[in-house]
Structure formats: structure tokens, C-alpha cells
């Protein structure tokens, strides 16, 4: 079982009507040196300028990105290459990140290598500190830049700190 921390950037609030613009992933292990980065062409004419602005790209730039089917296949291949056993999807906001990744995998590849579930780093931290008002973000080392690989790496660093600090039983293979 391998944990893969994922972060996505989009041009709107939901997949299908709007587009995932880019995403990053990092295999959670002691090195955090196995990463994936994808930039995807929009799949819709709809987009929210404020949402797209978070990614740092213009609409014109996104139109030159790779076809989503290619990016998702490349990501599936990366997961297969780097994951031992079932890959586990985890992110700091899995309600948002998961819906885009899951939708894109099923829409473009007709299967999701992560299966049917995801995990939420924020909820995990709230549980281990037993306080629903706490936030894990102070545990990041890598600056949160809205580049999805940076953000996924910072979140993976937080997970490793949680593992060490709270003796969290988690398999990181």
C-alpha cells in the first residue's frame, strides 16, 4: 500500500462543467523525490477567472496544455510504477481534489487506479490532536505556492511529521 499525496488546480468548482488545469502528486516516503506533474487542456468552454487565476495560468496558456486523456494515462502509469500494492489517494482537501481526479480517471480512462475512496489529511490531523478546530498547515516545510507539486510535497511533509510525532501507524512503501 502506497500513499500518494495529490493537489489539483482548476478553473471552476466542479469537474465536467469546468476543467482541472494542473495537478501534482508525490509518493509519500522518507525521500519525497518521486513526483508527478500534469497540465491539462480545458474540457469545457466554461471557466471562472478568479478560480483560474489561482493556478497562475491564463486561459490562452491552458489551451496549449496536453490532452487530458494523455495526462491521465501518464499519471496512471506513474502510479503503477511507483506504488506497491493499492495506491491510496490523500490530499488536504480530498472533497475537492478527489472529485476532479476521480472524474477525470473515469471519464478518460474508464477506471481509477486509486479505487473508490480517498483520505483527508486535515481530518486525520484533527483526529490525532483530538480537536476539530486545529489545522495541520503549520507542519508543512515546503512553501504553499499553488504549484500543485509544491503543495502536495508540503502536505506530504506534514503527514510524515504527524506519523513521527503521534506514532501514527501507516504503511509507507
UniProtKB/TrEMBL annotation:
<keyword id="KW-0540">Nuclease</keyword>
<dbReference type="GO" id="GO:0004527">
    <property type="term" value="F:exonuclease activity"/>
</dbReference>
<protein>
    <submittedName>
        <fullName>Exonuclease</fullName>
    </submittedName>
</protein>
<feature type="domain" description="3'-5' exoribonuclease Rv2179c-like">
    <location>
        <begin position="3"/>
        <end position="162"/>
    </location>
</feature>
<dbReference type="Pfam" id="PF16473">
    <property type="entry name" value="Rv2179c-like"/>
</dbReference>
<dbReference type="InterPro" id="IPR036397">
    <property type="entry name" value="RNaseH_sf"/>
</dbReference>
<dbReference type="InterPro" id="IPR033390">
    <property type="entry name" value="Rv2179c-like"/>
</dbReference>
<keyword id="KW-0269">Exonuclease</keyword>
<dbReference type="GO" id="GO:0003676">
    <property type="term" value="F:nucleic acid binding"/>
</dbReference>
<dbReference type="InterPro" id="IPR012337">
    <property type="entry name" value="RNaseH-like_sf"/>
</dbReference>
<keyword id="KW-0378">Hydrolase</keyword>
